[in-house]
Structures are given as structure tokens and as C-alpha cells.
Design brief:
Layout: H1 11-36, H2 60-68, E1 73-77, H3 78-83, H4 89-93, E2 99-100, E3 112-113, E4 130-134, E5 137-139, E6 152-159, E7 173-179, E8 187-195, E9 199-211, E10 215-226, E11 230-231, E12 238-239, E13 242-254, E14 258-271, E15 277-281, H5 296-304, E16 324-339, E17 342-357, E18 369-387, E19 394-415, H6 419-423, E20 437-458, E21 463-485, H7 495-506, E22 512-513, E23 517-533, E24 538-549, E25 558-560, E26 566-569, E27 577-590, E28 595-615, E29 628-648, E30 654-669, E31 699-700, E32 707-720, E33 734-745, E34 748-749, E35 760-761, E36 764-775, E37 780-787, E38 813-814, E39 822-825, E40 832-840
Parallel strand pairs: 4-7
Antiparallel strand pairs: 1-6, 2-3, 4-5, 6-7, 8-9, 8-40, 9-10, 10-13, 11-12, 13-14, 14-16, 15-39, 16-17, 17-18, 18-19, 19-20, 20-21, 21-22, 21-23, 23-24, 24-27, 25-26, 27-28, 28-29, 29-30, 30-31, 30-32, 32-33, 33-36, 34-35, 36-37, 37-40, 38-39
Length: about 850
């Protein structure tokens, strides 16, 4: 069965061919630039690379987010991203404390804003409380966030209910990424970076005119590869490595009253990034009734006659280790047409995401099973918007939005040669399960249509009232189908024996077909956002917002009891989630904008919060409860906290940035939560059975720090023509630059607060720093950088893996059980260091 791991092309080979083609294209474009010699006066200011800054060093968008807009938000400029080598969303999260991307793999990662995303259920059918927007296009599946971002103009975090001014509705906030427009100024840059773990990053960025003052292009390319920091002792493969590349092309047309931007992107990856935790000791499971589970090592010897090879999570012995391969293709077009004083906007987009994950069939050189889900996602969206001019007594925007998404899940559990002996049901004959594949084919469909409008009425120069309303209708559909593919020696057994063995190994799986079901509902989002500008330095505001999230598709499996009698299905669709958000904040700026200090307080109630649940309403023939996990709804959760953003320019060329977040996420009402593993004992004392459910009401979420802070500084110092004596090419003036950034996290609880075995991770700080030298004409730049200077190995990315084997789930920390060792997740990234050279080709 494992020969299927060879499916797919070599992304490194494809990337090398493409980068050669792009460099040749850049060289040809350079020659054309020399021949045409476009005059400076022909350039159009609106499409230059980089943004103009005011006297305080703020770009227009930065000033809008941090100073003018009466909503909480955060901002990172593209220049800062380039200098500090922020390539992935996890890099940006170290500058934005209340944002945790949790993008450990491109399928079940759960990006979190204000903690939401950490507590929610994962899976391809689930709905996010947070949104991801790139160049004004809303992308629903988390796989579209799985990339390096090498041409960023700016990164923005929008907080609170979204959707009344465009895009799709979300209840907690959006991550907004804007990339560089094509420019009518010819320019090509090539950057190469090399670091430890043989980390190589290549970036190419080429832009210029095709038709002067009318049509411009931009082509970008990245290649990102390293050997990983966890070494498989069998194959030598580097776990948590990088092996990805991508290309992006843009066309930008400027007419008298029309602009049009066409974007196409393509990205590939093939990485060993789905084994995000490892064993650190033998199992430590002590049940709440005082009984102790058998150790993992004794179970391993008793069932398979094997000894434990390692309890070092950085030196695993994987069997049939495979890569997680992905492909992402997107295309979008944005048309802006000036109609009188108003602007009509049309945004059309299509994207597809494909994922083929292969994990491993066991650590310690055992060959048990590999569970993974192949994913095919297609999304189409269309938006029409009409916007009034700015700086009017009444500013307004109205629009229509439509989205179609189709998700197909082809899940499979491949059983290895040790599976029958390990599970022992109903026989230990090795041939019974060897090579057997258990499949489930799940489908999820989303059709969303909405009308929205938002208006701001300026009562006078100080008081403004903003109202927003969005009403949409969304149809969710889903189905699931399960079947068994026989193995190498299945002909020696009856179909019933095979079905019993699969059910014994997986507890619930069998042949089944849920049939298709769908549900439609209105989704209402509304905001009231008054603001009052006390003077030029102080803006205070409030927000009352209501958001609504559609039902999630539960890729449920049927419930069987011990005699294989069918008991029922879990619900295919969850309840809708409703959010009520209340905020109060102030934005202040002092000393001509050189000092910015913003504060925001929020209280957010979420009802029918979508989360993993355990159903114990069915019992088997012996009267024992059947525990079945599914995606359901928690009656009531609450988020409350405070956010701070600050920026200070005390002297010329020195910028200090600081931000902080206090976040408390709590279950207000959750009376029937699933008990943690140590409350499900296997040996009763005095006839006391383990509880079917346990209350999590009025308890805090795990995997989330209460406090998080960031502080950083950037400094530049002109050196003049300091190296003029070295030769003609060094006579250009140069500037030295440097930066430092510290990201501090409070302690984190990685286990249920009601568990008997709890684990707290101590507070820690991630320190990044770098320095370099660049020519004032921007023809070259050289820098040296260190990420995680202190080499802190704390877990920063606790989320759920696509590998459903318990031993491989990245839940932060686990005491293990009789069948799994005690495990801890890998750190997001150990200390990395290197150097970068950026050259302006023309």
C-alpha cells in the first residue's frame, strides 16, 4: 500500500526550472528597459512600489489603521517584513500578540484571533471564526494561508465582527494581507538567504511597464528549503523541514476612469511537517480514581515483543515516513471604475487547494497504521461594491457578495503488518489487517450570498456614527461514505472477519453511507460604531457588533456497538454560531504623531460555539456507553480582554514598537463536555464507573496564554561614502541598520483544567535580532539575522495534526496511555541564523 507515497512531482526540480525562466525573463526585461529609457515624468504615482510616509514615518495605510479608524487593529509594514525576514504568518504573529496562526500544516490548522480558533473543532468541514483576506479576496480554507509571503505591502489585523464593508462574514476578526502593485518604474531585485539547517531562501521580484502609463506587470518567485531540525533515525529525513516554492504574476491596467488588477499565483510544497510531537518518556497515566494504566513500554513488549528504541522526541524511528504534499492555485481580478464621484468595484476570484498527506505507520520501528485525509478544495467568489468618496459628511459603501466552495475529503487509514497483533481484534493473525485500507469519502458544500452596507455620518468635526449591516443566506451541505479496501492477504478471511477487525481497530468504523443533507439559513451581521475626536490627539470609540457563523459540516461516522449492531449517525450539520461583541477604545497620538498609544477593551459572547464533542447517549449490548467524537456546539463561551498598540519615534531614524494583549477565553456554559483521558478509567473501584460527561462550565480554555507582549526597535544610521577608498563601485553612500524584537508569552496550560495530570508551560521570550548595511540608492543590501536567539524550545504552535494517531497529535503535552508514550509537541522553530544578500538587478 505504501507505494502511493511516490505520487507527485519533485517541487525542487520544478522550482529550479521556473526560477531559471524567470531570471532569463528579468534579464530580457532589463535589456528592454535600457532600450526604452522611460522618463521619470511618465510614472504614475499611485502604482509606485512602496508607500509614501508622513512626517511621523507612517504610511497612509498605517496611519489609517493606527490613528484614524475607530476600530481595534494592528499593522506591520512591508518594509519591516523585508528587513526582519518575516516570510510566514507565524513570523508576523510574534509582532501581534493576540494573533496565533497555528499553521502547523495546511489542513487542520486553526488560526486564532483573541484565542478563538484554539478552542474550536478542526477539520475540513468546520467554519472559521477568523478570516483570511489577500488583495481584497476572502479565502475560506486554511490551506490558502500555507505559503511564504515575499512581496508584502502590509499586514493588518482587523478585530471584531467583519463583513459589513466587504468580503465574507466572520465573527472575531480578519487577517488582511496586501501585496505590492505592479509599478511603471522598471525594477528587478534578487535576494538570497542562507542559514543553519542548510536553510536556503531565494526571492525574485520583477516589475515594470508593458505599455507606458497604461499597463504594468509584476512577477515574483520564492524558493524555501531546509533540512529540518528533527532527524528520523531510519531515513535521515528532516522533520518539520521546509521544501516549498511559489510564483505569482500580476497585470495592472490604468485607464482614464478605470483600473484593473489581474493576479495569478501557484505554490507547491512537499514537507515532513505532519509529525509535530514526539515521546519524551514512558507513559505517565494515573486515572482520577487512583488506578494506574499499564505503561506504553510494557504494552509494546506484550503485544509485539518489541523494546522501546527512543524517548527522544528529536530522534524518532519512523516506519514508512511520508511527506505532506500540497498545491495551491489562485486567480483573481479586481476592477475599479470611477462613476461620477463614486467608485464601482468588481472582485472575481477562483482558487483550488490540493493536499496529499502521508504520515507514518508508527514510531519505534513498528508498523501499525497511518491515518490521513486527502483534500480537494475549490472556491469561487464574486463581489460587487459601490463606494462613495471619502471626507464627506456621509460616507457609504454597499455591495453584493457570493461564494461557492466545494470540499472533498478522501480519508484513509492504512494498516501495517503489526496492526492485527497490536489491536488483537478479533485475531492476531498478521495477514488480517496487513495492507487493508479503510476509506471515508466526505463532501462539504458551501453556497453563500449576501448584501451589505456600511455608512459613516459625521455629525460634526468631532462626532461620527458608523452603522453596518449584512444579511446573507448560506446553504451548507454534506455527506460521508465509508468502505474497506482489502489488503494483501484478505482473501484468506471472510468479509465479516475483515469488517470486525477494522471496527475493532478503529472502534466505530464500518461500511456506511450517511446520504446527503443540506441546510440553509439567514446570517445577520451588524455593527454600531460611534466615535468622538476630542482633539487632534485623542479619538475615543465604542462598538456593539453582532456576527453569525454558518453551520459546520461534521464528517461523521456511524455508531456501532460491540455486536456490530448499527446504532445511528452523528448529526451532519452543527448549529449556527452567534457572536455579540462589545468594545471600548481610545487612539492617541502625540508630538506630531511620533508617539502613538492605543488601548481597546472587549467583551465577546459566543453562543453555540462550534467545538469537538463526545456523544455518550448510545450504549452497547453490555450496557457500556459508546463514546463517539463529533463536531458539535458548546452553549456559551466568553472572550474578554484588553489590547494595546504603541509606536514611538524618540529620535530621528529610531522607531520603537510595542503591543500587548490580555486574553481570557472561558466556557460559560458547557455542562456535558467530554471527560479528559484520565477520567475514563478502565478499572472500577467500589463499582464507581467513569463519568459519561464532565462539566467545563466556568473554566478557562487551555493552549492559550492570558498575557502576551511584544516590544521591538529599528534603527538606521547613515555612514556616507564610508567605503569610497575601496573602489569606484563603493563610492555610493551607505546606511547601517539594525533591529531587535522580543515576544513574551505568559504560562500556558496544555491539559484540561479538570484533568488529574496537568501540565503548565512556563513563561518564555522569543528574541529575534539582526543588522546590516545597504546602499542609499538601494542597489544592494547585506544583512545578518538570528531568530530565537535564546534557543527557547517551548511549544508555540499547539494545534491538531492531520494525523489522527493519538501519539502524533500536536496537543502540546500528553501523559500518554497504555498504548502511547508521554509526548510533547516540537517547538515552532529552534534558533536559526544566517545572512541575506539583496541585489537590485536594474
Amino acid at each position: 500500500m505504501h507505494h502511493k507515497r511516490l505520487v507527485g512531482r519533485n517541487p525542487s526540480l520544478e522550482a529550479s526550472k521556473l526560477v531559471l525562466a524567470l531570471i532569463l525573463a528579468a534579464s530580457a526585461s532589463r535589456d528592454a528597459a535600457r532600450a526604452q529609457a522611460v522618463p521619470e515624468t511618465a510614472q504614475i504615482q499611485d502604482v509606485r512600489v512602496g508607500a509614501d510616509v508622513n512626517d511621523a514615518g507612517l504610511t497612509r495605510q498605517e496611519e489609517k489603521v493606527l490613528v484614524k479608524t475607530p476600530r481595534s487593529g494592528d499593522f506591520v509594514s512591508g518594509q519591516k517584513a523585508q528587513v526582519e525576514h518575516l516570510e510566514r504568518l507565524s513570523d508576523f504573529s510574534q509582532l501581534v500578540p493576540n494573533y496565533r496562526p497555528n499553521v502547523s500544516n495546511p489542513q487542520t490548522s486553526r488560526p486564532a484571533i483573541r484565542g478563538v480558533g484554539q478552542g474550536a473543532g478542526t477539520g475540513n468541514g468546520s467554519e472559521n471564526d477568523t478570516g483570511f483576506i489577500i488583495d481584497n479576496v476572502f479565502w475560506k480554507a486554511v490551506g490558502f494561508q500555507w505559503s511564504d509571503f515575499v512581496e508584502i505591502e502590509n499586514f493588518e489585523l482587523g478585530l471584531g465582527p467583519q463583513g459589513t464593508a466587504g468580503g465574507k462574514n466572520t465573527t472575531v476578526g480578519n487577517i488582511i494581507v496586501r501585496t505590492q502593485l505592479p509599478s511603471f518604474e522598471r525594477k528587478a531585485t534578487f535576494e538570497t538567504s542562507f542559514g543553519n539547517h542548510t536553510h536556503l531562501i531565494e526571492k525574485l521580484n520583477v516589475t515594470g511597464p508593458i505599455i507606458d502609463e497604461k499597463l504594468a506587470y509584476r512577477v515574483t518567485f520564492f524558493y524555501d528549503k531546509d533540512n529540518g531540525f528533527v532527524k528520523d533515525q531510519v531515513t535521515g529525513a528532516g522533520i518539520s523541514n521546509a521544501n516549498r516554492w511559489g510564483a505569482r504574476g500580476q497585470l495592472y491596467y490604468v485607464g482614464e476612469d478605470v483600473t484593473d488588477r489581474l493576479i495569478f499565483s501557484y505554490a507547491r510544497s512537499a514537507e515532513y511537517n505532519n509529525n509535530n510531537s514526539g515521546p519524551f518518556s514512558d507513559s505517565l497515566q494515573i486515572f482520577a480514581n487512583g488506578t494506574v494504566a499499564s505503561s506504553y513500554s510494557s504494552t509494546l513488549f506484550r503485544r509485539l515483543g518489541r523494546m522501546v528504541l527512543t524517548f527522544d522526541r528529536y530522534r524518532p524511528y519512523y516506519t514508512h515516513l511520508g511527506t505532506l504534499s500540497s498545491r495551491t492555485i489562485t486567480a483573481s481580478n479586481e476592477l475599479n471604475w470611477q462613476i461620477g464621484e463614486n467608485t464601482f468595484t468588481s472582485i472575481s476570484a477562483w482558487g483550488e487547494f490540493r493536499l496529499l498527506p502521508y504520515n507514518n505507520t508508527g514510531n519505534q520501528l513498528i508498523d501499525i497504521s497511518d491515518s490521513h485525509t486527502n483534500q480537494w478544495t475549490d472556491q469561487f467568489s464574486q463581489e460587487f461594491r459601490l463606494t462613495s468618496p471619502k471626507d464627506q459628511p456621509l460616507e457609504w459603501s454597499v455591495g453584493l457578495f457570493g461564494l461557492y466552495e466545494k470540499v472533498f475529503n478522501y480519508s484513509e487509514t492504512e494498516y501495517g503488518s503489526d496492526a492485527a497483533q497490536w489491536f488483537g481484534t478479533p485475531t492476531t493473525d498478521k495477514g488480517l489487517l496487513w495492507g487493508v485500507d479503510y476509506h471515508t469519502n466526505g463532501k462539504a458544500l458551501t453556497i453563500n450570498g449576501a448584501a451589505y452596507g456600511q455608512a459613516t455620518y459625521h455629525v460634526d468635526e468631532q462626532l461620527a456614527l458608523t452603522f453596518g449591516l449584512r444579511n446573507g443566506y448560506e446553504v451548507k451541505g454534506g455527506s460521508n461514505f465509508g468502505w474497506i479496501q482489502p489488503g494483501y492477504l484478505s482473501g484468506n478471511f471472510t468479509l465479516q472477519q475483515l469488517a470486525n477487525a477494522v471496527r475493532g481497530a478503529s472502534s466505530t468504523q464500518q461500511f456506511f453511507d450517511t446520504g446527503g443533507t443540506s441546510k440553509g439559513a439567514n446570517l445577520l451581521t451588524g455593527i454600531f460604531n460611534p466615535s468622538y475626536r476630542y482633539n487632534d490627539n485623542i479619538l475615543v470609540y465604542g462598538l456593539v457588533g453582532r456576527g453569525e457563523k454558518a453551520s459546520a459540516v461534521n464528517f461523521a461516522v456511524p455508531i456501532y456497538e460491540s455486536t456490530n449492531a448499527f446504532k445511528g449517525f452523528q448529526p451532519i450539520l452543527t448549529k449556527r454560531e452567534v457572536s455579540w461583541d462589545y468594545e471600548l477604545g481610545a487612539k492617541t497620538n502625540w508630538f506630531d504623531g511620533k508617539l502613538i498609544a492605543n488601548i481597546n477593551l472587549y467583551w465577546n459572547d459566543l453562543y453555540n460555539f462550534q467545538s469537538n464533542q463526545t456523544d455518550t447517549s448510545y450504549v452497547d449490548a453490555t450496557g457500556a456507553p459508546i463514546r463517539s467524537t463529533y463536531l458539535g456546539s458548546v452553549p456559551h463561551v466568553r472572550l474578554k480582554g484588553a489590547e494595546f498598540t504603541g509606536r514611538w519615534n524618540p529620535i530621528e531614524r529610531l522607531w520603537i514598537n510595542a503591543s500587548g494583549a490580555f486574553t481570557e477565553a472561558r466556557y460559560v456554559s458547557y455542562p456535558d463536555a467530554a471527560p479528559p483521558a484520565d477520567w475514563i478509567w478502565t478499572t472500577n473501584i467500589n463499582g464507581v464507573k467513569p463519568p459519561l460527561t464532565i462539566s467545563r462550565s466556568n473554566t478557562r480554555w487551555e493552549n492559550l496564554p492570558i498575557w502576551a507582549f511584544n516590544i521591538g526597535a529599528n534603527y538606521e544610521h547613515p555612514l556616507g561614502a564610508a567605503f569610497a577608498e575601496w573602489g569606484e563601485w563603493t563610492k555610493q553612500p551607505v546606511t547601517a541598520f539594525g533591529y531587535v524584537n522580543a515576544s513574551w508569552s505568559d504560562k500556558i496550560l496544555f491539559t484540561s483544567p479538570v484533568a488529574t495530570n496537568t501540565y503548565w508551560q512556563a513563561p518564555f521570550t522569543i528574541l529575534n535580532t539582526g543588522f546590516g548595511l545597504r546602499s542609499d540608492d538601494e542597489r544592494w543590501s547585506i544583512s545578518f539575522w538570528v531568530k530565537n536567539l535564546l534557543d527557547r524550545r517551548e511549544v508555540t504552535n499547539a494545534t491538531t495534526s492531520t494525523n489522527t494517531n493519538a501519539a502524533n497529535n500536536n496537543s502540546g503535552w500528553s501523559p500518554g496511555s497504555a498504548t502511547t508514550p508521554a509526548t510533547m509537541a516540537f517547538t515552532n522553530q529552534p534558533r536559526s541564523f544566517g545572512g541575506s544578500l539583496l541585489v537590485k538587478l536594474y
